[in-house]
């Protein structure tokens, strides 16, 4: 194993570890729930991405085989992190905010968490 | 050099796991607890991958993939339960 490969794998491991630690520290230190939503969904996901890149490089440069499992996990995490953040924000809004606290939506139906879905204007189903 | 980096990553994600556990215990809101559980799952995935590099085996990918899927589904189910009082309507 060459020195450059070792340096690359170590670099991605250290960067991933620091990002993961910063994300969890933000979850602990920030003040309100909506602020706390920021750090884990971005920094920790990036940290896991760094570790997965390190793992991929390690098995490519040491074992000599290219595996796509890490890419699958990375893709899955990057797809699901915004969805979970959106759901958690909606949960917080339902539990802590009144409908009068929110600004107007500017169109007929109101916020989706309080109002039902609007009736479709062109109903093609017969 | 890789061994030192591996143990550094172990320490970082282990500390992160402790912090998320603390936030889950004291979290004043249900949203905080759900968020802490989700972050805990992500930290566990990272620990699995680092352990796989340490042991030099690829068997831990599958475990990490399963943990990721179960974590996502459980987070969404918990949020649905708080939002609507029901998981599958």
TrEMBL record, chain A:
Residues 116-126 have a biased composition (Acidic residues). InterPro entries: PhaG_MnhG_YufB (IPR005133). Residues 105-126 are annotated as: Disordered. It comes from the Bacteria. The chain crosses the membrane at residues 6-31, 43-65, 71-89. Keywords: Membrane, Transmembrane, Transmembrane helix. The keyword Disulfide bond does not apply. It holds the Pfam family PhaG_MnhG_YufB. Coiled coil: none annotated. GO terms for molecular function: sodium:proton antiporter activity. PANTHER family: ANTIPORTER SUBUNIT MNHG2-RELATED. This is Na+/H+ antiporter subunit G. The lineage of its organism: Bacteria, Pseudomonadati, Pseudomonadota, Alphaproteobacteria, Rhodobacterales.
TrEMBL record, chain B:
It holds the Pfam family MrpF_PhaF. Belongs to the CPA3 antiporters (TC 2.A.63) subunit F family. Keywords: Antiport, Cell membrane, Ion transport, Membrane, Transmembrane, Transmembrane helix, Transport. It comes from the Bacteria. InterPro entries: MrpF/PhaF-like. GO terms for cellular component: plasma membrane. Its main location: membrane. It is a multi-pass membrane protein. NCBIfam families: PRK06161.1. It is found in: Cell membrane. The chain crosses the membrane at residues 6-22, 34-54, 60-83. This is K+/H+ antiporter subunit F. One of its GO terms (molecular function) is sodium:proton antiporter activity.
């Amino acid at each position: 194993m060459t020195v450059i490969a070792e340096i690359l794998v170590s670099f991605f491991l250290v960067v991933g570890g620091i990002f993961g630690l910063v994300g969890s520290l933000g979850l602990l230190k920030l003040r309100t729930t909506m602020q706390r939503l920021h750090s884990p969904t971005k920094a920790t996901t990036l940290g896991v991405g760094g570790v997965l890149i390190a793992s991929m490089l390690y098995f490519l440069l040491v074992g000599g085989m290219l595996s796509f499992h890490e890419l699958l996990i990375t893709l899955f995490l990057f797809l699901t992190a915004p969805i979970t953040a959106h759901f958690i924000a909606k949960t917080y809004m339902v539990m802590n905010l009144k409908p009068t606290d929110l600004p107007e939506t500017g169109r007929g139906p109101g916020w989706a968490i309080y109002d039902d879905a609007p009736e479709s204007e062109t109903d093609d189903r017969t | 050099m890789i061994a030192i980096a591996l143990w550094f990553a172990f320490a970082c994600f282990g500390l992160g796991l402790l912090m998320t556990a603390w936030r889950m215990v004291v979290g004043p809101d249900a949203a905080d607890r759900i968020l802490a559980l989700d972050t805990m799952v992500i930290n566990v995935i990272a620990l699995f991958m680092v352990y796989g590099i340490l042991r030099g085996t690829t068997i831990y990918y599958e475990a990490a993939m399963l943990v990721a899927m179960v974590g996502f589904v459980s987070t969404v189910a918990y949020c649905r339960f708080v939002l609507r009082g029901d998981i599958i309507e």
